[in-house]
Amino acid sequence: MTIRTFDSQANDQPRRRWPWILALLFGLPLLCLTTLAVGLGVWQYRVLGCVFICTQAELAARDLSNSQLFLVDLSEANLQGAQLQGTAFSLVNLSGANLSGANLSRATFYRVRFDPATNLSRADPSGVTLSELDLSGVNLSQAKLNGVNLSQVSLPGAKLDGADLSGAALSGVDLSGASLNQALLNAASLTASTLSDTTMAGANLRGATLTEVNLLRADLCGADLLGLRISQNSQLEDKTRLVWRLTNKDLADLTLRNADLSGACLPGLDLSSLDLTEANLTGANLRGANLRNANLSGT
Question: How large is the average pLDDT for residues 171-175?
Answer without folding.
Answer: 95
